Amino acid sequence: MIGLVGPNGAGKSTLLNLACGLITPTTGTIEVLGSRPAANPAHLAKVGFVAQDTPVYAELSVADHLKTGAKLNPAWDARLAQRRIEQIGLDPRQKAGRLSGGRRAQLALALAAAKRPELLIFDEPAAALDPLARRGFLENLMEFVTDLAAGAILSSHAIDDVERVCDYLIVLAESRVQLAGDVRDLMANHRRLTGSREALSKLPSGLDIIRADQTGHEGTVIVRTDGRRLDEGPWTAENLELDELVLAYMTRTSAVGSVPAATAQEAHR
């Protein structure tokens, strides 16, 4: 599960629409599962996509959606679709336009998963849901990914959602990858250091300072340590929360003009 985060306008939806083949690149190239996105019907069948507004056809019933899905997708799993519809308590006769936001999202998720894709792509699918519906959606999302043995990309502004379900993180800002890597590794390789201005001036050379805040004679810096704990020194070293790490890279971008912090290998991955 890959979490894709970044501010509004960072390029998240553009990237995901490129990956689905809904738009084509004006320059450069993109490959998904080894070929150009939406190159042919067989490739389309390998990718499931749930857009930000969890689109469904308002005038079609739940049952109509399942029938349409079966006709359009060669690997359609009717049992999976029916089982999930029953589990979330959807009435097959009800029109999708009369469903709540949470139930529309669940229907869209069931349709995407019943394709039995190799890759599921979610563009802010839970953005408009209340906390209870959001939790249910994320739980079902994780179940689908596990059952299908599929990869997934989740774009979200809610760092709590990303932390709950994702094991890999990409921070995108101003259309550039600022940070990418396994969540555990990223958390282990960043620290918050607090101390006097004089103490922080004695940091080891070669440290990548992501963010620095000064208040009078005291200061706080967030640094990329690449495995060094930095517990020995005239400062206090602490672990970060994930939202603090993400915010540090976002604010770094606005401060330094979109200089990518990720290594070339991370950006390629």
Walkthrough of the structure:
β8 and β9 form a beta hairpin. The radius of gyration is 22 Å and the shape is elongated. α4 packs antiparallel against α5 and α5 (101-114) runs parallel beside α6. It has a six-stranded mixed beta sheet, sandwiched between helices. The protein has a four-stranded antiparallel beta sheet with strand order 8-9-7-10. It is built from eleven helices and ten strands. The longest helix has 18 residues, at 131-148. It folds into two domains: 2-166, Rossmann fold (3-Layer(aba) Sandwich), CATH 3.40.50.300; 184-268, no CATH class. Helices cover 38% and strands 21% of the residues. With 269 residues, it is of the alpha/beta class. Mean pLDDT is 87; it is low at 256-269. It starts with a strand and ends with a helix.
Secondary structure elements and pairings:
Elements (H helix, E strand, L loop, with lengths): L1 E4 L6 H9 L20 H4 L2 E4 L11 H11 L5 H10 L13 H14 L4 E5 L7 H18 L2 E5 L3 H7 L2 E6 L2 E7 H6 L1 E7 H4 L7 E8 L2 E7 L11 E3 L3 H15 L7 H5 L1
Parallel strand pairs: 1-4, 1-5, 2-3, 3-4
Antiparallel strand pairs: 5-6, 7-9, 7-10, 8-9
GO molecular function: ATP binding; ATP hydrolysis activity
Protein name: ATP-binding cassette domain-containing protein
InterPro entries: AAA+_ATPase (IPR003593), ABC_transporter-like_ATP-bd (IPR003439), ABC_Transporter_VariousFunc (IPR051782), P-loop_NTPase (IPR027417)
